[in-house]
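Long-time lurker, first post. I've been practising inverse folding by hand and with some scripts of my own, and I keep getting stuck on stretches where the structure tokens seem ambiguous. Below is the full token string for one chain I'm working on. Before anyone asks, I'm not after the true native sequence, just a reasonable design that respects the backbone. If someone could post their per-position residues I'd love to compare against what I wrote down in my notebook.
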């Protein structure tokens, strides 16, 4: 295992990859402005200012007037760490481009609208811890069989079985590789539970994937 923060250049996150969330939003997506459910993966970036690591404090967000925001939430995902240049690969060969797996946490403002990218809510400083290490791909037989959990102050608040993702890990790598070339060290966060977990100032949050690791962070004050 490599005990470093494994981010290089891009951290690409996949939204709306929870089957239950998509089912709950079906009626909404069939109305304006969407008019139909998404037919391709819904992606967003966590830019460099958001990157953080295991054990680090996550800053509590402030509004445009400098006041602490009333609410923040967290989601957690399996992070797929790319091992070699990946461009236009098939689902059948996609997993051979993976160096390893890690845990990605995404702290953000609550999100209600998926029509436009939520730059304000997703680009908060220190809001994307990654770690605690890279687990080699050879150690994970089937990434789609893993389970992602979130505990706040020791109490489990969310469990997301990756078997419930709309699109598999291999399918996502393939599709994204047709949108953009992926380089070694870059990460895809393949899917989050639709219901994000509310957090409060001072909370200790543990995001865990058995066989991959437990990423621990605390929420700062503001």
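-- Answer (accepted) --
I ran through it position by position. Result:
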């Amino acid at each position: 295992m490599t005990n470093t923060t494994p981010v290089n250049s891009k951290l690409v996150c996949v939204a709306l990859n929870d089957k239950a969330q998509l089912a709950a939003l079906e009626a909404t997506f069939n109305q304006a402005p969407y008019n139909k459910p998404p037919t391709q993966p819904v992606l967003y970036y966590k830019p460099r200012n958001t990157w953080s690591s295991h054990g680090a404090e996550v800053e509590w967000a402030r509004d445009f007037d400098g006041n602490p925001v009333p609410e923040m939430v967290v989601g957690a995902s399996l992070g797929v760490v790319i091992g070699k240049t990946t461009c236009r690969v098939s689902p059948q060969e996609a997993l051979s481009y993976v160096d390893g797996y890690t845990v990605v946490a995404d702290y953000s403002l609550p999100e209600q609208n998926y029509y436009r990218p939520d730059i304000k809510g997703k680009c908060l400083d220190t809001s994307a811890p990654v770690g605690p290490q890279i687990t080699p791909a050879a150690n994970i037989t089937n990434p789609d069989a893993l389970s992602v959990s979130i505990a706040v102050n020791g109490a489990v608040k969310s469990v997301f079985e990756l078997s419930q993702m709309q699109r598999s890990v291999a399918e996502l790598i393939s599709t994204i590789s047709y949108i953009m070339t992926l380089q070694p060290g870059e990460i895809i966060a393949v899917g989050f539970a639709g219901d994000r977990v509310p957090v409060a100032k001072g909370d200790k949050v543990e995001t865990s994937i058995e066989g991959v690791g437990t990423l621990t962070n605390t929420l700062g004050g503001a």
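A couple of notes from the structure itself: The two ends are 35 Å apart (CA to CA). The mean pLDDT is 92. Happy to go over any region you disagree with.
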